[in-house]
């Protein structure tokens, strides 16, 4: 905060606004912006890993593994996202606490499930009551990342599974004819070529993931939408040094500009990646590049 902000009642114009935008609560808004960007940076590769594992399982020649992959894709795609977001936070939290309970309190005699209550010993609680605040925040963020990754990983699995099937089968037959095993053909022929078919679907999924970040509030993480609503609501002099009327429209307008700008930058980056992947490929985009270069 600026030195001249010690007495906000004497300020006006840009000085008042600069002091107002540097209060501790506004710092939380800027911090939550970093949280959203970190969530996207961590969740995108994690969800892609879940998706690749699910697509590989769905394409497996081992029947139980194939059924498991297709079941993962079908169940998560067939249930509303918000239901899974609410379910996985509770389920993962209780799963972790149950595992710790089995290790740390093997002599516990009472049932863990007691009606509507889930009761474990104090040593198995996550996080511990004595843990500092940052541990609680990191734990909540980790649960959010896992929840986003599981849900969006199922959509990514469906995209990648379709991309694997789109690679011409003659490519695989040629690989087998040259003596490659199924494992070698999968990693050296199928996987490198599938990305050009998968990228349009993955691009759309990335856009959906960006728009889904406000669901962080449902997972117990205070995101930018929460702070925009909190800071934009009308404030009276009784409760703050910076009273103002209802400014939520302006805060949400700022969020609109942020999300539009972020998605536009994403489109430019994804278009560049698509052009690079399409170079030399026997696809519509690859043919268009060859005609342009001719």
Topology summary:
Layout: H1 13-20, H2 24-58, H3 63-77, H4 81-104, E1 113-114, E2 117-118, H5 133-166, H6 169-177, H7 182-212, H8 224-232, H9 248-278, H10 284-293
Antiparallel strand pairs: 1-2
Helix pairs in contact: 2-3, 2-5, 2-8, 3-5, 4-5, 5-7, 6-7, 7-9, 8-9
Compact overview of the structure:
This protein is an all-alpha fold and 294 residues long. The chain is built from ten helices and two strands; from the N terminus they run ααααββαααααα.
Helicity range of the residues?
over 70%
User: CATH superfamily membership, which one?
Assistant: MetI-like
Largest sheet: 2 strands, antiparallel
Shape: flat
User: What's the end-to-end separation, in Å?
Assistant: 60 Å
Which oligomerization state do the chains in this entry correspond to? single chain
**Uncertain spans:** none
Q: State the order of secondary-structure elements, H for helix, E for strand.
A: HHHHEEHHHHHH
Overall CATH class: Mainly Alpha
Determine the CATH topology.
MetI-like fold
Can you tell me about this structure?
There is one protein chain. This protein is mainly alpha-helical and 294 residues long. It has one domain (23-287): MetI-like fold, CATH 1.10.3720.10. 70% of the residues lie in helices and 1% in strands. The protein is built from ten helices and two strands. The chain has helices at 13-20, 24-58, 63-77, 81-104, 133-166, 169-177, 182-212, 224-232, 248-278, 284-293, and strands spanning 113-114, 117-118. The protein has a two-stranded antiparallel ribbon with strand order 1-2. A hairpin with a 2-residue loop joins β1 and β2. α4 packs across α5 (133-166). The radius of gyration is 25 Å and the shape is flat.
